[in-house]
Amino acid sequence: MAKAIAVADEQNTGIQRFKSQPEKLMSFLRDVRSEMRKVIWPGRAEVQATTIIVLVTVFIFAAYFELVDFIANHTLDRLLVYLSKH
């Protein structure tokens, strides 16, 4: 008997949860809309400035890593040549 009551309660809570989904979705969407109104979007000039900064930084790091790679490669080549002679 107790099992039958427990199963009935579980079914009711499952159905209740299923029925409450549209309400939860609407509440979530209202919250999203409210938060999106608080967002301050960057202007065109700010986007251009930050894009230029990012591009310059990427090229600087690329040049740095190219230099480090060249030095490491050159050093290892010389080391291997030296070790192969001896």
TrEMBL record:
Leader sequence segment: none
Q: GO:BP terms for this protein?
A: intracellular protein transmembrane transport; protein secretion; protein targeting; protein transport by the Sec complex
* Top-level division of the source organism's lineage: Bacteria
**Which GO molecular function annotation, any one, does this entry have?**
protein transmembrane transporter activity
Cellular component GO terms, alphabetical:
plasma membrane
Q: Where is this protein chiefly located?
A: membrane
Q: Which InterPro entries does the UniProt entry name for this protein? A: SecE_bac (IPR005807), SecE_sf (IPR038379), Translocase_SecE/Sec61-g (IPR001901)
Q: How does it sit in the membrane?
A: Single-pass membrane protein
This protein's assembly is summarised as: Component of the Sec protein translocase complex. Heterotrimer consisting of SecY, SecE and SecG subunits. The heterotrimers can form oligomers, although 1 heterotrimer is thought to be able to translocate proteins. Interacts with the ribosome. Interacts with SecDF, and other proteins may be involved. Interacts with SecA.
PANTHER family reported in the protein's UniProt record: PROTEIN TRANSLOCASE SUBUNIT SECE
In which family does this protein belong, per the annotation?
Belongs to the SecE/SEC61-gamma family.
Q: What is this protein called?
A: Protein translocase subunit SecE
What taxonomic lineage is listed for the species of origin? Bacteria, Pseudomonadati, Acidobacteriota, Terriglobia, Terriglobales
Gene for this chain: secE
